[in-house]
Each structure stands twice: as C-alpha cells, then as structure tokens.
C-alpha cells in the first residue's frame, strides 16, 4: 500500500519476521492468541458452517508488554502483510482535518487478507476532551467504527490500547475479543533475560539474585536491560555477563523510568 497525500510516515506496510514464541505472554493470553490463529487458519471450515473466525482484536495492558509485537507475530504466523496505522501521529499532525485524512487511509487500505495494526487506540478517547470541534471528534470515532464494520472478513484487525476503560462502549462492542496483557512474572522475566543474552556467557550470573530485581519491569525494559549489559561486556572485550552488570542495567532502566515517567522500548 502506498498512502497518498503525505501519509507515508503515518502508515507502514511490512512482512514481519517475529514469531509468537518470541513474545513473553501469560498463559491465558497465549491461549487466546493460539485460538485466534487456529480459527484464522481454519476460517474456510468455519465459514462453511456459517461461522466467522475471530478477526477484530483489542489488546490492552501496560506499556512494554508486547501488544504491538503480537500484531507482528500474528502477521508472521499467518504469512500476511502487516499494515500499521499510527493514530497518535495522525491526530497530532492533522488536528482539525483528521477525519478527511482517515478516509484517505481507509480507502487506500482496501486490501484482501491483511493484518491491520492500530497503535495507541486510546488516543482517540484521550483527545476527545481537547477537540476544538466536538463534532469533528465524533466524526473521527464514527469513521473508525465504520472502518471496523467494513473491513474484509479475510483480514485481521488488531487494535492496541493501554487503558480500555477510556474507550467508547460503541468502540469496544466492535471487537470480537478483548485480550489482556500483563507485566512478566519473575519466571517469565528471567526466561526473557536468558533468551536475550543467549549469545553471551551467563554462567557467572546468579539468577536467584537477578530475580530480586525484575519485579514490575515490562518486557521492553527487561530486553533493554539485557542488551545494555551485553553491550558493556562486549565493549570491555568480554563475552561474559556478570550478576552485578545485569543488576546495574536493571536498576538503571528502573531509575530512568521513575525519573521520566515514560516507558522504555519500542514494543507496546
């Protein structure tokens, strides 16, 4: 898809390479996503019985827990292109003209069998109190609802929101499944760190000690901490990561988050 009217920075199309096994998930979340994949892969069988596979998903939970990464993984598992629409950038760039720009995007997105990712869906709810024209805000929401209703049944729509309680009831009702994301527990966090440090020598790491420093950290921050410890080791001429180096990285990521109030990491 080639977006028109300077929208190329707001909409991207790619063939993702992330697998679902790359995302650290709670068991209930994993089961829901596997059900989505199973139904999508067997959609012809379901449709032959007058049934429709799950195809409009709302992923909610804290920042950095793998929601956007999941959309990439679903696209990979289904061998489909991933089209990402940045709602926050769209509204910020075209305040007052957003509805018209949304129409351009939606018209350009009329492709069969695609995974659509709408990032930061709660921006629509958060910005409604700031619209200079409340009618324009309602028009944007109505247009998005119309898009959801009109998407090809072969396609998968994935919307990401950090706070589902902010969303309009009419919007929530359009989704087939609400899938919750959580911060990793201690075992998941340690597993994630081990995987990210798989190319390094971690034989000297006391994982029991590391377990005391991972509580409350998101998947994105844990990955960042592992990468920081690995880079320090490599730049010092070593391929070995120590317990103290990893603890230092974890503490730094936590301190930066507390100081700025921002989440760290690209994956929502």
Structure description:
The chain has twelve helices and six strands. The chain has 268 residues and is an alpha/beta fold. The chain folds into two domains: 11-180, Rossmann fold (3-Layer(aba) Sandwich), CATH 3.40.50.300; 186-260, Helicase, Ruva Protein, domain 3 (Orthogonal Bundle). The protein has a six-stranded mixed β-sheet. It is elongated, with a radius of gyration of 20 Å.
CATH class identity of the largest domain: Alpha Beta
Please name the fourth-level CATH homologous superfamily of the largest domain.
P-loop containing nucleotide triphosphate hydrolases
The helix fraction, in percent, is 40-55%
Bulk shape: elongated
The computed structural class is alpha/beta
If classified by CATH, what would the architecture of the largest domain be?
3-Layer(aba) Sandwich
Number of helices: 12
Can you tell me the CATH topology of the largest domain?
Rossmann fold
Low-confidence stretches: 260-267
- Determine Rg (CA atoms, Å): 20 Å
How far apart lie the N and C ends? 24 Å
> What percent strand?
5-15%
Give a short synopsis of this structure:
With 268 residues, the chain is of the alpha/beta class. It is 47% helix and 11% strand. Helix 5 packs parallel to helix 7 and helix 11 packs across helix 12.
């Amino acid at each position: 898809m080639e977006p028109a009217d300077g929208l190329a920075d707001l909409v991207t199309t790619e063939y993702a390479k992330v697998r679902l096994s790359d995302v650290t998930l709670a068991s209930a979340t994993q089961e829901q996503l596997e059900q989505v994949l199973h139904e999508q892969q067997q959609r012809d069988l379901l449709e032959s019985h007058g049934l429709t596979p799950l195809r409009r998903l709302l992923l909610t939970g804290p920042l950095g827990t793998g929601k956007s990464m999941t959309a990439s993984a679903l696209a990979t598992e289904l061998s489909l292109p991933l089209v990402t629409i940045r709602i926050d950038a769209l509204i910020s760039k075209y305040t007052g003209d957003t509805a018209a720009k949304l129409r351009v995007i939606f018209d350009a997105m009329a492709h069969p069998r695609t995974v659509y990712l709408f990032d930061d869906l709660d921006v629509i709810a958060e910005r409604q109190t700031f619209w200079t024209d409340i009618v324009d805000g309602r028009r944007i929401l109505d247009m998005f609802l119309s898009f959801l209703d009109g998407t090809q049944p072969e396609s998968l729509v994935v919307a990401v929101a950090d706070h589902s309680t902010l969303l309009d009831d009419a919007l929530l009702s359009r989704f087939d499944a609400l899938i919750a994301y959580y911060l990793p527990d201690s075992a998941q966090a340690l597993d994630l760190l081990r995987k990210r440090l798989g190319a390094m020598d971690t034989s000297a790491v006391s994982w029991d000690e590391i377990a005391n420093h991972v509580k409350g950290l998101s998947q994105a921050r844990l990955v960042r901490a592992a990468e920081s410890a690995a880079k320090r080791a490599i730049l010092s001429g070593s391929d070995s990561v120590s317990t103290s180096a990893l603890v230092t990285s974890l503490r730094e990521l936590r301190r930066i988050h507390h100081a700025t109030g921002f989440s760290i990491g690209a994956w929502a």
